[in-house]
Amino acid sequence: MTDLRSIANSVTDTINPNISVTVTASTGYTIGAGLKQVPSYAEPVSGFAQVQALTQADLRHLDGLNIQGATQSIILRGALCAVVRNNAKGGDLVQFNGQTWLTVAILENWPLWTRAALTLQVSN
To answer: What is the third-level CATH fold of 4-120?
Structure first.
């Protein structure tokens, strides 16, 4: 099987270099004080990803989902998950450049890589 993502990345990386990211996968939630749901996450995994602006079609898609805020597109080797209600999981977290981003939509999902929409999270 030809790895088209690696071929495309070799070209895009010269214009928009890949950056180091840390992905923390959602594992669901636990119940905290006052019966409040507290998100839980797996151990973080680091790697490199391509961060890009969203396309006009992506923006329309997110608008239809009523997703607001600062958004980016990320392309990385492996899988990301947005909310998966059947599994009671929230979106995965992606950290880069000192900021935390929430995976809100999967735009493309392939066997070797994923392109997802992220929204910037406010730190507490």
So the answer is: Thrombin, subunit H (2.40.10)
